[in-house]
Write a structure and sequence with these properties.
Elements (H helix, E strand, L loop, with lengths): L1 H6 L3 H26 L7 E4 L32 E7 L8 H8 L3 E11 L2 H6 L12 H10 L3 E13 L6 E11 L1
Parallel strand pairs: 1-2, 2-3
Antiparallel strand pairs: 3-5, 4-5
Length: about 180
């Protein structure tokens, strides 16, 4: 139940989870968008936008929505300027396959930005017990290099203690940025 509620929230529980996720993820999404630094007229893709509330500021003129697995979406080669994904990599079974799929979508100089939570945060919340993939920054960066991304940097932001209900955990955000 927890896996489905986080991966694809639906119904009353989905609405509640979605609203809580918006509150919890506002900071990491804002930092991800800042790192992406989208410009007017650029083509930007967001993988796993949730309900879209947090990234709606990216939309200025036209939006195309594609529901489903990102491995199945048709994106032209060298057609995007940027891609962002916040708290998505935990749901990806094969990171190598994902990066091989998205890398051709980028125009030269395109930006790829991932917002993730530190491994310690995810472990304290027992995400791994539900089949989520907890990946270290180094693993993500090395896999990105393997697929031709360069100028890879990451920034850690300490968000203090998080507390959904009675549980308390060390909260933070890691923003990984790379150039195609």
């Amino acid at each position: 139940m927890a896996e489905g509620a986080l991966a694809r929230p639906c119904g009353k529980l989905g609405t509640d989870v979605s609203n809580k996720m918006n509150d919890t993820n506002a900071f990491i999404t804002e930092r991800t968008i800042e790192a992406l630094a989208p410009k007017t007229g650029e083509s930007i893709i967001e993988l796993g936008p949730g309900n879209g509330v947090l990234s709606c500021g990216l939309v200025q003129v036209l939006i195309q929505l594609h529901a489903g697995d990102c491995h199945d979406v048709a994106v032209d080669v060298a057609s995007i300027d940027g891609l962002m994904a916040v708290n998505v990599l935990y749901f990806v079974d094969d990171l190598d396959r994902l990066l091989a799929r998205i890398r051709p979508w980028f125009r030269p100089g395109g930006r790829c930005v991932f917002g993730i939570r530190p491994a310690a945060t995810l472990r304290s919340l027992c995400f791994h017990e539900f089949g989520y993939h907890i990946r270290l920054v180094e693993e993500i960066e090395n896999t990105m290099r393997t697929h031709g991304f360069g100028q890879i940097t990451h920034t850690h932001f300490d968000e203090g203690e998080g507390s959904p209900g009675e549980l308390s955990f060390p909260n933070g955000s890691i923003i990984i940025k790379a150039i195609a």
